[in-house]
Write a structure and sequence with these properties.
Elements: E1 6-10, H1 17-23, E2 25-28, E3 31-34, E4 37-40, H2 47-54, E5 62-64, H3 68-80, E6 85-90, H4 98-112, E7 117-122, H5 127-142, H6 147-157, E8 161-166, H7 171-175, E9 193-199, E10 202-209, H8 212-227, E11 232-238, H9 242-252, E12 258-265, H10 268-274, E13 279-285
Length: 287
């Protein structure tokens, strides 16, 4: 009997490790270049150690998506385990080369193993928005859906999965070249907390607040405005700001009722760009 559809995503999805194991989600690690040192996201560098270093460094490391060879290797391992259908889920192609690299790998695998089908997905999003899509795809695979059904489900999810986050500074996004259309917020006064989201795969400004508490209230208002009476699943995300993310959760869940919520810490490859102290949420409406 053929195995269920395999679900593969990247370390930047930042899915908590227990969920990866429970749902059998496979990950490919991003690269972090720290001077002459090459690290693999969540493999040779972990969150706490990396954030401690990031707060003290005078230079910003760079990140790189996995290459086609990394994806071919991952696809072959899954095929060797008996999976002949794989869904490969990646962050926005406007912010990373992962989707393109995976697409090249898909073509390479087609020549090597024509019996294995791979569907490569550009989620047009990042972080736990990418993560939610992988989580729901894995649940669909466990329930017995085939590759076409899972792909159709993912395509329905992409427009209804949203991110909102705030940080003490946007300098990390700016220095890393990932600032998108929020560039004008970089020079804001130090007492302004910028709010950013994503629109069609690109970072966009969605407001400013004068304190973290006001930022959390604005984020809660934004979620309530979008969600209305719909059911919602929320992932609260942070980079070394666990107390702050619990505050955000309290503010948001006074306004809306989540049918599922979780707290996750961003992977080092994302924390490079957000910086320590980032707090946000990724939410999925369910109709």
């Amino acid at each position: 009997m053929l195995k269920k559809v395999a679900v593969l995503t990247d370390s930047t999805a930042s899915i908590p490790e227990p969920m990866l194991k429970e749902l059998d989600i496979h990950q490919v690690a991003y690269y972090i270049h720290r001077g002459q040192e090459v690290l693999r996201d969540l493999v040779t560098i972990q969150r706490e150690e990396f954030l401690q270093w990031l707060t003290t460094t005078k230079f910003l490391p760079t990140t790189a998506s996995p290459g086609p060879g990394d994806y071919v290797e991952a696809y072959n391992l899954l095929a060797d385990e008996g999976h002949n259908e794989i869904v490969s889920i990646h962050m926005t192609s406007k912010g990373s080369g992962a989707f393109q690299a995976a697409s090249v790998a898909q073509s390479m695998l087609k020549e090597q193993r024509p019996d294995v089908r791979v569907e490569v997905i550009d989620t047009r999003n990042v972080s736990l928005c990418q993560g939610w899509i992988a989580i729901e795809a894995a649940r669909a695979a466990i329930s017995g859906l085939n590759l076409e059904e899972i792909t159709a489900k993912i395509k329905r999810m992409i427009p209804i999965t949203h991110m909102v986050q705030t940080a003490d500074t946007l300098k990390y996004l700016y220095m890393g070249g990932r600032i998108g259309r929020a560039k004008h917020l970089v020079g804001s006064l130090l007492n302004i907390k910028p709010l950013i989201g994503m629109e069609d795969g690109e970072i966009v400004p969605i407001g400013v607040a004068r304190s973290r508490n006001q930022a959390y209230q604005a984020m809660a208002d934004k979620v309530e405005e979008v969600v209305g009476r719909s059911k919602v699943k929320i992932a609260y995300v942070h980079a070394g700001a666990v107390q702050e993310v619990h505050k955000l959760k309290q503010v948001v869940e006074k306004k809306i009722t989540a049918v599922e919520s979780l707290i996750a810490e961003l992977s080092p490859a994302l924390a490079v760009h957000t910086g320590p102290g980032t707090t946000g949420l990724c939410y999925l409406t369910e109709g």
